[in-house]
Amino acid sequence: MNQTCSYKPHIRVGDQSYPAYELKNLFRYLKQNFANEVVERLYSDIGIGESELMVSQFVYVWQVDYAMNYVRQLSSDPETAAKAASSYKVAQLDVLLPHLAKFDTLGECLQFAISHPELVGSFSDNLLMNVDGRLYVRWLNTNKVDVERYSFQFQHSICSLLAFAKELTGENIRVSHIALAEPVREVEFLSAQTGADIIFDSEFFEWSIEHRYLALPVTYSFEHAAVKLGTESSNSYISQILAILRELAPELPSMEAMAELQNISARTLRRRLASANTSYQKLVDQVRCQMAIDLILTSDYSIDEISDLMGFGDVSHFRQSFKHWIGHPPGYFHRLNRPLTRGE
Fold it and tell me: How far apart are CA 237 and CA 256, in angstroms?
């Protein structure tokens, strides 16, 4: 069995940058399907104007997350995410266009997208597996997003990627399977759009595609595309805090100690993070969770040894914490994912 795997801790949160094309597309969908006051309310809620958005290459993650949830709650249609994402056009990709224009195959484009969450955007950490001629992309809900919201983000991601892939190659590309960690519901549009076998009540969200599709040549003409090379916004306060936490891990400071490192009060730190739609504890949990997942999936350490490496005095405390972070105890998470990663 040909089998390789990699863990990608790519989740973007709060005031970290996210490509503006995602938000622009959501507004296009709203304008086509809802009244003008609904559109204006969203502009007001996320604090951005239409003219400002149209010239922006990057926005905040929380603004895109809010907009996706806003669209989800407007409609009782369980396939809204798939329908909104399927209207994507390559020409709307703004900052990504000059990068995609360099590649010869669909696989190279996807590899770039996977490797650059700061340019492409990501709501989830991913586990990537190449097994018997297929690429599997498993989403890991390390941010503990509720299932309906997470499913919306997952389906939106699949259908937008597929819309781009079909236009880039001019081919009718099909997804092999889609696993949904939710009860059976209507998926007629998702099934028709992707061609996938759809599995419900799974223990994870996952999709796969055959390698032969990834080898397809890019035939899209970028000649008339507006290809402006942009750069990621670098003034994210959350990125600064995460960088400090990762440097200090596993000995992570208290909020008061972090505030002292920043030469501000704990109250100011709390307020700054709240304004970016997160909290200090969420960021600490994110760093510790990603560290634990990486050790479980890529090392030969036992659960007891990982607990010690992460500074837990009691392995039972580590097990409880990991279950709180990811929804499964570490041993079960190891069994669920590790056989796929190591050919065991």
Answer: 17
Burial bucket for residue 85 (CB in 10 Å: 0-12, 13-18, 19+): buried
pLDDT per residue over 149-169, tens digit each? Answer: 999 999 999 999 999 999 999
Mean pLDDT, rounded, for 137-145: 91
Instruction: Answer whether residue 2 shows pLDDT above 70.
Output: no
Beta bridge partners of 3: 131
Least Cα distance to 80 among 142, 138, 153, 11 occurs for 153
Query: Could you give the CA distance from residue 12 to residue 239 in angstroms, rounded to a whole number?
Result: 9
Distance CA 191, CA 178 (A): 9
Integer CA distances (angstroms), 274 to 43, 69, 153, in order:
20, 18, 22
Q: CA 13 to CA 152: how far, in whole Å?
A: 17
Of 276, 279, 268, nearest to 143 by C-alpha is 279
Which residues, 6+ apart, have CB-to-CB distance to 219 below 8 Å? 168, 169, 170
Confidence (pLDDT) at 340: 53
Residues whose CB falls within 8 Å of the CB of residue 13, separated by 6 or more in sequence, listed in order: 61, 62, 143, 238, 277, 278, 282, 283, 286
Distances (CA, A) of 209 to 70, 115, 134, 167, 169: 30, 18, 5, 17, 15
For 233, what's the count of Cα atoms within 13 Å in the CB-facing half-sphere? 19
Q: 61: which 2 tokens?
A: 């993650």
Query: What mean pLDDT comes out for the span 26-42?
Result: 95
pLDDT of residue 118: 85
Q: How far apart are CA 113 and CA 261, in angstroms?
A: 34
In this predicted structure, what is the pLDDT of residue 132? 87
Nearest to 126 by CA among 166, 100, 158, 94: 158
d(Cα 116, Cα 102) in Å, to the nearest integer?
A: 15
**Angstrom distance (rounded) from CA 218 to CA 89:** 15
Pairing relationship of beta strands 134-140 and 125-131 according to DSSP bridges: antiparallel
Q: How far apart are CA 289 and CA 124, in angstroms?
A: 13
Q: State the maximum Cα–Cα separation within the chain, in Å, rounded to a whole number.
A: 61
